[in-house]
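Reviewers of the previous submission asked for a worked example of the structure-prediction workflow described in the proposal, so we include one complete record here. The input consisted solely of the amino acid sequence. No template or homolog information was supplied to the procedure at any stage.
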Amino acid sequence: MVITQEKTQVTVKDFKTDQKSTWCPGCGDFGILSAVQTALINAGIAPWQVMLVGGIGCGSKLPDYIRANGYMTLHGRASSIASGFHLANTDLVTIAISGDGDGFGIGIGHLVHNMRRNMDIVHIIENNEVYGLTKGQYSPTSKRGFKTSTSPEGAIEFAINPLSLAVSAGATFVGRSYSGDPKHAAEIIKLAIEHKGYALVEILQTCPTYNKGQNNDWYKAQTYKIKEENPNYDETNMLHAFELALKDDGRYPMGVLYHNTERPSYTEQVPALQQNKTALINHSLELKADLFEQLKKSYV
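From that input alone, the workflow returned the following structure tokens.
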């Protein structure tokens, strides 16, 4: 993402609100909120320089708990609304926040098309592998056999693989972290913000109410840092990204899986933006008389 403003000196106090959280004690969303704030601070982005767009779900409430421009939209529509904000005002750093059900369930069609367009937004998908807000149904990322109150015999569907989906759909930045390591998550989010194009950041998270087995201790045992295990890993190689995303050894790789800087973003290809070299909100709406006459004649 092109950050046109000069870096601003900000602290965590600048992003604090007086809103009381409704998240359950121990929810991974607290770590994700901390990671987003830290990433913005480290990138030198002030509250008025960012637009946060949430969908519907526990984690999608994040715009309520951070002092910045924020907008809460419909279930599954966060990435598309965020794209609209970005096209209207390319000076803002635009971040969409969804849950796994929000992003990979009802919103998957919007997700895929915004990936292939390479919209210049950051999309954080908080993945606890369950629908938390609606009382614990299995989600598109739930493991096969996962038992819930609405699937007492276990889910019979195979889970979506978010990372391989993102790489194949055209996302040019694909990263992963988890809520129990907010420092690492902040590093990945900052890299996503600085990327020009569609950046998917999947953040695995705990749900102490409906997915109790996958707590912080479980994630610590099941995750590893990509660069620590393989210092020579090439994140620009799509085949390497696919191999890592599809590797089925029961562990979750953390870090940047894929980073493509060659594909132009959607914004870079919009003629009106390239001709005027300024955000659409700054374009004049005045229509000169001769242009108005030409427009009328085009309909005759």
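Residues 12-298 form a domain with the Rossmann fold fold (CATH 3.40.50.970). We consider this example representative of the routine output the project will generate in years two and three.
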